[in-house]
What we know:
- By secondary structure, this protein is mostly beta strands.
- It is built from nine helices and 106 strands.
- The strands form 26 sheets. Strands 51, 52, 53, 55, 56 and 57 form a six-stranded antiparallel sheet that branches. A five-stranded mixed sheet has the order 6-13-12-8-9, with no helix packed on it.
- Strand 25 and strand 26 form a beta hairpin.
- The longest helix is centred in the N-terminal third of the chain and has 39 residues, at 124-162.
- The termini are far apart.
- The model is unreliable at 1-106, 120-127, 267-293, 509-526 and 1466-1471 (pLDDT under 50).
Amino acid sequence: MSGSIPFYQKNHRHYDRGYRSKEMESAVSQYQASSSSYAARSSSTSRGLRVSSYSGLEESRLSPIPKRSKPTYLAVDRENQIIGYVVPIFRGSQEFASGLSDTEEARMKESAGHMARRNLFTSGLEMERTEQSSRKTAMRESAERISLSKRIHENEEYHKRMNEDSLMHTPEFVIKPRSHTVWEKQCVRLHCTVSGWPDPRVVWYKNNVTIDPLAQPGKYKLVSSYNVHSLEINRCDFDDTAQYRASAMNSKGELSAFASVVVKRFKGEVDEALPSPRSSAASGSKDGIVSEYGITFQTHIVEKFDVAFGREGETLSLGCTVIIYPNLQRYQPEVQWYRDDVLLSPSKWTHMHWSGDRATMTLTHLNKEDEGLYTLRITTKSGYETHSAYVFVRDADAEVEGAPGAPLDVRCQDANKDYVIVTWKQPAVDRGSSIMGYFVDRCEVGTTHWSQCNDTPIKFARFPVTGLVEGRSYTFRVRAVNKSGMSRPSRASEPVAAMDPGDRARMRGTSAPWTGQIIVTEEEPAEGVVPGVPAELEVTEATKNYVVLSWKPPGERGHEGVMYYVEKCVSGTDSWQRVNTEIPVKSPRFALFDLAEGKSYSFRVRCCNSAGVGEPSNPTEPTTVGDKLDIPAPPGRVVPIRNTDTSVVVSWEASREAKELVGYYIEASIVGSNVWEPCNNKPVKATRFICHGLVTGETYVFKVKAVNAAGLSESSQESEPIEVKAAIATPAPPYGISVLECVRDAMVLAWKQPAFIGGADITGYFVDYRQVVEGVVGKWHEANIKSVTDRAYRVSDLKENMKYQFQVRAANMAGVGIPSLSSETFTCAEWTIAVPGPPHDLQAMEVRSTSLVLLWKPPVYQGRDEVNGFYIDIKEAEAPLEAWRGVNEKATDKKYMKIKILKEGETYVFRVRAQNKAGVGKASEPTEPVLAQTKPGTKDIVVDVDDDGVISMNFECANLTPDSKFVWSKNYEEITDETRITMETKGNKSKATFKTPAEDDLGIYSCLVTHTDGASSSYTLSAEELKKLLEISHDHKFPIIPLKTELAVELLEKGKVRFWLQAEKISANGKVEYVFNDNVVSQGEKYKMNFDKNTGVIEMTMESLTPADEGTFTFQLQDGKATNQSSLVLIGDVFKQLQKESEFQRKEWFRKQGPHFVEYLRYEVTPECCVVLKCKVGNIKKETVALWYKDGREIKADEHLTFSEGVLTLEIAQISKKDAGIYEVILKDDRGKDSSTLNLTDQGFKNMMNEVFSVIANSSTALKIQSTEEGIRLYSFVSYYNDELHVTWHHKDAAIAFTDRIKCGVVGEQLWLQISDPTDKDKGKYAIEFFDGKGGLRRTVELSGQAFDDAYAEFQRLKAAAIAERNRARVAGGLPDVVTIQEGKALNLTCNISGDPLPEVTWLKNDREMVSDDHYILKFESGKFASFTISTVNTADSGKYSILVKNKYGTESGDFTVSVFMPDDVGGKKK
């Protein structure tokens, strides 16, 4: 069936059998059975399109007339590409020629008659009549069929509404979008028709990226109407070449259709700004193409380059870091750089690099041509991201002072065989002297020689250079000149070849491969035809130096090409003169030089070829030689607008009737300086420009000049002065609308301040409300006409139990911002709860790494009782709701709290709950997340007291903005009354000064800086702090000279007395008065004064003290208005002691004139417990004698007496009581003598022995446990033991009473405690305490638990071993080792045997047991004596004998050898 239905109908609903009822199916089957079609083709043209019909059915050979297929009317373009379909008005006449059964017979008869008349060559008139009759019948049938179709459709719609689910089906494309190939800058439209139920939604994609019309306004237009969907692409460029996809989707499925768009352009008119076709390498790596389908790339440009400033000749780099997710190593994005929307390519001036995550572009040698808006574009298959910033290039320093800046943008136009027109742009900087003109230089490619093209400077920024050699390439540069000198040369132009434009075009047309461009060429003309007349001859450019003509080639020309002769004629004459007499030109353009300025000329052109010279063209209108281009008029009104704190947006009215305008230069000047600086060094064509690099806070004026080839216009009028600071915009919408209180006819709302306030303080808020009835919202109504400054407002005149929505708008000096999102739907019903409502307007201040201050406002709804406290909750920003926890356990009655439990780097949110007697109310809305971090540059309030005693608080903010203000508060309420405190702000510092500090000023003072990122700090003025500050203030009002030290006294050498003090700081004008007992003393024999003003040391010395010097000494200081004094009282015992010490020091000085003791005799105890008597002597010589005495008796010198290096020593080893006594050392020589005595008797000896005991105690080892056969022994070793050492043993911190079972003693250097036969009572802590006369030393050990068990087990083992050792069987003695005996003799050996129990005795011979008999008599008598007797020895008795004794404790043996010899053996030889 699908083959018999046209493609545009087979998906229509009334052709789908699923939509038909049984009645309709029967009717349609009748139509199909009775119908016969015929094959025909017809074509018609409508609006430039061909409409064709095609048949998909075969002709039936059985029908009397050929069958007609149902035609498909397709709209076809010139390339036979189907672009749609056309339904003819009388389509029924062809589709159903035999449509209805009741007319079938008539139609058959008409058809048979028609065929018969045609076969009999009937007349055309009869055939026409028959055709007319057939048309009438068809029209009638068509009307009936349309009526039936309508009924079918209505029935179908009825059943569809009755049972929609059974009709649902996936989308289908009735008409798919077709591919297009268009020229650049044309518009293209893709459209399709989609069916499906439910109605499908159609989304358009470009290279699998969703097309968003809002992302590029004006570029794309999407239209959907009656299942016809279209995509319109406006002004196609090369980037629009792509595959487009229409995706239709509903609840049953999704279907897509594809179409391609190819954008082409002409060769020779290629815009260099447009990108070249993307190669496969752009979408993949060297290893191959990476499939991009199914991956969505997310591109982020970070670390972006900012507005940059450079100078000619410098190198400048721009770069951005690019993050692409997912990161596929084999896929790289397309990185493109643009300048002023013109695509840049790598060159010697621009180097580009892509490292995989960073894109950089380096401008190797800056010129003013490089100035402009630079854009980085990162393109992936999912879309693209861009970043733009302006680069400013200033002129380099002039080589000659006062010379102008270099020209820029040198280009070559209309290049011909021997000339080229060079154009450039004038510089913005003339350095105070107007530019007289320009010189053009040229250089042949391949050389470095520059030659000047014009002898005199030209003012016009366009010049034809002649005298070029055909076929060679040249570059050009331009220099400007004023009365001060010549500028630097411009950047050289691109190379250009000197050849005919026609030859250049033909050379360009030889490219063969496809480059994405279309090369348009002309067909070769016919051969042997004299060329016709050139057309459209005109003067395209006329100056006082040259005239340029252009024309179009003739339509009739010869095969070998056409050339031209140019003729001129002075106006008013009829004398035509050929200009190019020698060689005709090949290009349809020509420049004429050496024309007389001021005269009028007419021009005409003739064509020629080998067939001859054609007729001349129509002459041009008379042209007067002279500059036709005027300097543009000055621009109109200049309006500056604030932008940022370093830039201003300048806009102006364009120059009126400006021809060939190149652009504008903008200049800026600080008001009052009269120094103008250029804002741009490259002309801008727009009438709006952002001037960067301005000084924040300065006031500027601006003016603008227009530029064309004729020169620069006069400056516009100066703009109004404007201060450079950030622009003001309307604030962003507020958010977080909540209800604070609700009564029967009013609701109190609260909201949060916008995140962006527009650069100016918010002046107020406007509230709107609308009613919501059963989910249907009404119109918005204003709740307040006058703005409210608080972030809370009571909306009145509401209806009880009705539902409302609210929105809020913020306003500042820039205007009213856009409204917030609609709030939740609130019901206006009176609150009756007992607890208070939520607090509101929470603010976080003084944010630091571990703390912040939270402020809030109390709830509007108090509940049944007044609010008596608040609770603060905290949680991490990302934590769940159950993570809320309290900050304060006890409610606070203040409306602020400092929270000190934060962790650095964590983000928190806070909320507040109010309480009254009824309980705790609903929590407030949480704050915005707050990061616990001390921001760089954060300062705290500093309290200062100046020289006049004025107390002030100072706060400094480094991140101040032009609109910032310092707001001082007391207890976090803004200070508006300056009766007690005054505030002053200068620059980025603010000072709050107390007038008369008192208890009324106690509190928390804070300072907040507006329009910053929350710069704030606080200072708590407590009663203690106030007292401290008042003391400092008093000291500053009544200054004193600070003293490092008060007046003091000290004794100097020879007993001199020195009174001195030191001042902290004193100037050269400082004065001192020395007072004794209220009398001023002065310099003299008795008093010597000294005042060192550099160090502040003031001193007075006296040789000695006498009783008359008892009293009060005072030093009085004065330095300007600062004074101070210090006194020292020397009366009574203090004076006497000082006087005595002075006399002693005086005597000591005399003593030290001869040999003397530097250190008197003393003793030391060495680690070896030796006592060394030592003294140190001084001022000795070889003749000095040292004598030691004990108890008045001289000690003879021995090896222990040493006298070297001024130290005398006497060593006493193993000291004991006999060493007690009085020791003395006497030094003497011819200068005198000195002695030193050491008393080592009684207490002195005890002290020395205590030190010896201390050394012994410290050398003791830790107390250890040892098991013996008698019991357990505790012991410690010392390095040396002295009999005088007193040691005490303790058990469980009690001294041990020694018995026969518990004993102590000393063995060598071991001190021990023996516990015989220990029991459980002996468990516990034991200690040995060494007495040293001071705290003593105690060593302890724990004899309990495992330690006791182990020791006791070892004791039992040793005890058992000892018993076994005592009672085991032993051979005590009596047996020799060897017995030598003569044969025949008797042998008797006896040995002692011991052991308990009585041991068993066994005798062995040669390790074999022996038995007592007559020969061997073995006896064991009295349990002690064992005897061995051989009655008569013979040689057989020789051998090894053993006695073996054994009992339960052990076994022991005794061995002996018996050797029997014959009497006649010589020497007693053994047998």
